[in-house]
Amino acid sequence: MAEGKRSSNYSWSGRLHDTLLFFAHSVRHPLRLGVPVPSCQRAADTIARELAGRPAERVVELGAGTGSLTRGILRALRPGNMLLCVEKEKRFCELLASRFNGHGKVVHGDAWELNSIIRGTPWEKPDVIVCSVPLLGRAGRGLCEQIAEALPNDGLYLQLTNWPAAMKPFFKIERTYFFPTNVPPERLFSAVPKNAQ
Questions:
Q1: Where are the beta strands (DSSP E) in 96-185?
Q2: pLDDT single digits (tens) 25-83
Q3: Using CA atoms, how far apart are residues 39 and 188, in angstroms rounded to an integer?
């Protein structure tokens, strides 16, 4: 499979390119991105392990950026599984589409329009939602509410953030992972809907 399937083949020069691209974009548009550089490899590896142990036929990634977490998702997916990447920044969408062509669908859109983006598509009730969009303030709570509405009761929600308060009204956090080498250091929360059996 292509680069997206095996993150171990992701070269240092590729990582440097993505880091510089991401950082330059965050300098030009500081309020649009939650962090100044892409997520670390350990976060992608942890997401791959989380997905490997459960059904993940339809996965939605919100805030795919340059694809640092997408690689981990793709490694865990089996043949026939489907990935939808939602990304607000057009330049990142173009990069994702060229990099992961054939291994997922890329939509240029806003995570806060999740329900309208997935309505009527194969991802309408995804098994897993992976999100790295910041969860700050009232907007973060609104996004978590949409994610809770989109997921079935047995769905999985993986959120990369340091501020999980917005998740708590809607989700039960089962596991937390800490990545001290991420910039800034960040946590991944593995959660299920509160109404899950």
A1: 105-108, 128-131, 156-161, 171-179
A2: 554 554 444 544 456 789 999 999 999 978 899 999 999 988 889 999 999 999 999 99
A3: 11
